[in-house]
Amino acid sequence: MAVDGTWKIAMETPLGTREGQLTLQSSGSALSGRMSGEAGATDIYDGSVNGDQISFKVDIVDPMAMTLEFSAAVSGNSLSGSVKLGMFGSAPLSGTRA
């Protein structure tokens, strides 16, 4: 599917731009994968695919423990959307296929 593969992502957070890498795999409407960045790596969960729309969650502990909720649209080799930063609101998300 169009979302499968490795993506370089950037989130514009209150602490500045945070960059990372996503490895995504779809199976029907289910989405699985792994996100890695400067704070380490973690599996995604509650992932779904609906046409060109994807959503998933990851739990992080750095800079503080929280759940990040991702929502994005995939178009060719790019993705764009937002990430909910727990109680800190939402931040813009962008990415390109690696």
Task: Give a short summary of the structure.
By secondary structure, the protein is mostly beta strands. It has strands spanning 5-13, 16-27, 30-37, 40-43, 45-50, 53-60, 66-75, 78-85, 90-97.
Detailed description of the structure:
With 98 residues, this protein is mainly beta. It has one domain: Quinohemoprotein amine dehydrogenase alpha subunit, domain 2 (Lipocalin, Beta Barrel), CATH 2.40.128. Helices cover 0% and strands 74% of the residues. The chain has an eight-stranded antiparallel barrel with strand order 1-2-3-5-6-7-8-9.
**What's the number of structural domains?**
1
CATH topology: Lipocalin
- Overall average residue pLDDT: 94
The assigned structural class equals mainly beta
- Given as residue ranges, the uncertain stretches (5+ residues, pLDDT < 50) are none
Question: Tally the helices: what do you get?
Answer: 0
**Architecture (CATH level 2) name:** Beta Barrel
Helical fraction? under 10%
Going by CATH, what is the homologous superfamily? Quinohemoprotein amine dehydrogenase alpha subunit, domain 2
Largest sheet report:
8 strands, antiparallel, barrel
